[in-house]
Design a protein that fits this description.
This protein is of the alpha+beta class. It contains 5 helices and 4 strands, in the order αααβαββαβ.
Length: 157
C-alpha cells in the first residue's frame, strides 16, 4: 500500500478530494465507522504529510483572471545559489500560481493568471524579466481549458 495507507485511509482521501467540506459524521456514515476513528485517521494523515491542506476551487473568470498562460523559461546559470534565488523570487510573484522545475529544453514551467494581454505584458516586462538570471522566456496562451483536476488519479483508489 502507498506510504503505509490502508483501504480506509484511501477511502477517506477520496471522500475529502470529492468534498473537503464533508463532515466527520458524513464520512463515518459512508465508511460504516464511528466518528472517532475517522477523525483520528484524518489527523494522522495530516500529521504524516499525506493531507497537506484544504482549498476551495474558485472560478478564475469570476474574478476577472481571464488569461491563463504557461510560460517556459531557461536560466543563464544553474549553480545552486542561482536556482535558490530564482525560486525565492518567483514565489513572490502573485500572478504565478504554479511553478515546476523541469528537465529537458526548459528549466521552469510557470502557470500565470492575469486579467488580459495588457496585464500579461506588464507582468513580463515589469516583473518576470527583472528577475536575476533569466535567459529566455516563451509563452503559450490557453485557448480552452479542457480539464482541470485537483484530485489524484482515481486508479489508486
Amino acid at each position: 500500500m502507498l506510504k503505509n495507507l490502508d483501504e480506509i485511509d484511501l477511502k477517506i482521501i477520496k471522500l475529502l478530494q470529492e468534498n473537503a467540506k464533508s463532515t466527520i459524521k458524513e464520512m463515518a456514515d459512508q465508511l460504516n465507522l464511528s466518528n472517532t476513528p475517522v477523525f483520528d485517521r484524518i489527523k494522522r494523515l495530516e500529521k504524516n504529510g499525506v493531507i497537506t491542506g484544504y482549498a476551495a476551487k474558485i472560478n478564475r473568470d469570476a474574478l476577472g483572471l481571464n488569461l491563463m498562460t504557461f510560460c517556459t523559461l531557461t536560466l543563464k546559470g544553474h549553480r545552486a545559489e542561482y536556482l535558490d534565488d530564482f525560486q525565492r523570487e518567483v514565489n513572490e510573484l502573485a500572478e504565478v500560481v504554479e511553478c515546476y522545475h523541469l528537465t529537458g529544453t526548459f528549466d521552469y514551467l510557470l502557470k500565470v493568471l492575469v486579467k488580459d494581454m495588457a496585464d500579461y505584458q506588464g507582468f513580463i516586462t515589469k516583473k518576470l524579466t527583472k528577475l536575476s538570471n533569466i535567459d529566455k522566456v516563451q509563452s503559450s496562451f490557453v485557448l480552452t481549458e479542457l480539464k482541470n483536476e485537483t484530485t489524484l488519479p482515481q486508479n489508486i483508489f
